[in-house]
Every structure is written in C-alpha cells, then in structure tokens.
From TrEMBL:
Its EC number is 1.1.1.133. Pathway: Carbohydrate biosynthesis; dTDP-L-rhamnose biosynthesis. Catalyzes the reduction of dTDP-6-deoxy-L-lyxo-4-hexulose to yield dTDP-L-rhamnose. Belongs to the dTDP-4-dehydrorhamnose reductase family. It comes from Saccharopolyspora dendranthemae. Keywords: NADP, Oxidoreductase. This is dTDP-4-dehydrorhamnose reductase. The keyword tRNA processing does not apply.
Length: 305
C-alpha cells in the first residue's frame, strides 16, 4: 500500500500545525500552507494549489487527501465582520470542495460545536438538529453544507474547545493569568470537551487513511473531541494543578457575571458514537490529554512573563 500525501490549508493554525508536525515525523508528503501562501478566498489560487498537489501526489504514487483546517475562528470579531467570516468559512470551503471534486481528491473539513444551539442536556449526535446562535456558528454550518453539496468525496469533522502548542487558547490564557493575578474567576455553567489539537490531528489522520483507500465511513458528518466533559471552571482548575499551581486560586462564576459579546453555548458536548461506529479510535479522556499535552509541549504552554 502506498503512503499518504496531505494538503492542509490553514497549515499554520493550531490544528494545521499539529497535523503537519505529525505528518513530517512520519515522513509523509505534506503541504501545509498558511493564509499568506494559500488564501482560501482566492478561488483561482485554490484550484491551482489543489491541481498542483494532485499532480505531485500522482507523480509520487501517493494517495492524496485534503484536510481543511483554515477558518475564521474569532467568535466575537465575526459578529462585526460577517462578510469576511462568510468569505473564509463558506466561500473558501466551497472553492476548495469544487477543486477537490474536479481532481477527485477526498476532503476532510473541520467544523465546530458552535453549529448547535448549545442548550442540550445530552451529547449532540452528528444527526441532531443544528441551530447556531452566532455569526461564526452560522458561517461554519453554511460551510459544512456547501462542502457536502459540492459533489466532492467529503467528510465533516466537528470538534470543540481546541488547545495546542501553536496559537492562542484557553490553556495558555490560564497560564498567563496565573502569572499576573493571585486569583481569577472562570465560568462554571458552560460545559464542553476540551480537545488537544495533537489528538484531534491523529484522529483526522486515521480518518484520512480510510478515505484515501476508498473505505471512508458512510456517515459524512462525524464528531471528534477528547472524551468526557467538564466546565471551563473545572478545566481551569485542572490546568492549574497540571502546572503545579494551587487550583484554589480559581473561583467559579456564572456566564451572567462574565458577559461576552457573543453568547457561548451552555452545553456543547459532542457525542463520539458515530466516530466509534465508523471504526475510528476514540480520543483519550480530556484529563489524560491535558497531562500528555503538558508533557509533550510544556514550554509552549507555560507563560514566560
Ligand atoms: N479553536 C477551537 O477551539 C475550535 C473549536 C471547534 C472547532 N474549531 C475548528 O477547527 C478548525 C481549526 O481551528 P484552529 O483552532 O486551528 O484555528 P486557528 O488556529 O485560528 O487556525 C485557523 C487558520 O486558518 C487560517 N486562515 C484564516 N483565513 C484564511 C484564508 N483566507 N485562507 C487560508 N487560511 C486562512 C489562519 O491563518 P492566518 O492566521 O495566517 O490568517 C489560521 O492559521 C477550524 O475549522 C475551526 O472552526 C476550532
């Protein structure tokens, strides 16, 4: 069996960086352009990049897959810039999916728990009714639809609460605030599944192996997060403990006491049932993932002052 060749638009982001690091360590052919090298909102550039990648993979007799991790991810900023969010989260994926369809390349497209209203009392299944409450969520949902309707061999992988060594995220924010303040308050009424970008990347690659051999799951929308769920408050306490800091410096507060410009889902746990039914390996618990992340990339997460 020949190896994979993977094109990763958004290759400099949290998830894209992890994907490209893992692929390089496996000596897989990977092209992981950042937005400066491949702007998803430029349809011609997208088509040229996909065509060139298909040719390189073909010449090397490798099995090509595209994994789209590029997105407009600034949830609050999207409210005042919906056109840009739509360009990147809808028009970009549409161009990419059309180019993949025409070059017959399978596409994995990463999406989010924000496509749901966030008021459930049990984990969301991929088939559950969506109902985004934000511009970010609405554009991501529209992006899912254009990808699925493009005619490409495409799969949507929704994830949530991502943190990794590259880019800003909650773990790094907690480490920074711990260095700046004696105590801090974190909301305890929003529940989700913290997900280590490296675990998500490994999950995406397991799926990529299947789709590249034509044995991708029938179910085209899947959920992939670390297993288990928690509140931001308990996650913050776990981060403090993992960083050898006193978790009692973190106090609980309600979302009403910590208003954000955009509503955050109260409950957005994603069920991994469909992932498992597809024969894919469930990701480890969020607690084990946090410990592993700090062992693997401790320096990247610790605040340097
Ligand atoms: N972070 C989370 O908590 C979370 C939760 C659920 C789902 N997700 C989803 O997971 C995926 C990856 O997210 P992430 O956390 O890795 O986000 P990220 O760190 O913000 O990375 C997204 C990347 O997209 C790139 N990008 C933005 N505009 C682009 C354009 N016009 N053309 C090409 N690339 C562009 C950005 O590159 P530049 O910086 O160079 O512009 C950035 O590196 C996204 O689909 C996101 O919706 C994330």
């Amino acid at each position: 069996m020949t190896g994979l060749a993977v094109l990763v638009p958004g290759g400099q982001g949290q998830v894209g960086s992890e994907l490209s690091a893992i692929l390089r360590s496996r000596e897989t052919l990977v092209h992981a352009p950042g937005s400066a090298e491949l702007d998803l909102t430029d349809p011609e550039a997208v088509r040229d990049a996909v065509d060139a990648f298909a040719e390189v993979a073909g010449d090397a007799e490798l099995r090509p897959v595209v994994i789209n991790t590029a997105a407009y991810t600034a949830v609050d900023a999207a409210e005042s810039d919906p056109e840009r969010a739509r360009e990147i989260n809808v028009a970009g994926p549409a161009s990419l999916a059309e180019a993949c369809r025409d070059s017959d390349l399978p596409l994995l497209h990463v999406s989010t728990d924000y496509v749901f209203p966030g008021d459930a009392d049990r984990p969301y299944e991929p088939t559950d009714e969506t109902g985004p409450r934000t511009v970010y969520g609405r554009t991501k949902l529209e992006g899912e639809r254009v990808v699925l309707e493009s005619g490409a061999r495409a799969w949507i992988v929704r994830t949530a609460w991502v943190y990794g060594a590259h880019g800003g995220n909650f773990v790094k924010t907690m480490a920074r605030l711990a260095a700046q303040r004696d105590a801090l308050s974190v909301v305890d009424d929003q529940i989700g599944s913290p997900t280590w970008a490296a675990d998500l990347a490994r999950g995406l690659l397991e799926l990529a192996e299947l789709v590249a051999t034509g044995t991708g799951p029938q179910q085209q929308v899947l959920h992939c997060t670390n297993s288990g769920s928690t509140s931001w408050f308990d996650f913050a306490r776990a981060i403090f403990t993992a960083l050898d800091l006193d978790p009692n410096r973190v106090n609980p507060c309600s979302s009403a006491e910590y208003p954000t410009r955009t509503p955050r889902p109260a409950y957005s746990v994603l069920s991994g049932n469909a992932w498992q039914h597809a024969g894919l390996t469930p990701l480890q618990s969020w607690q084990d993932a946090l410990e592993a992340a700090l062992v693997a990339d401790g320096e990247a997460f610790r605040h340097r002052g």
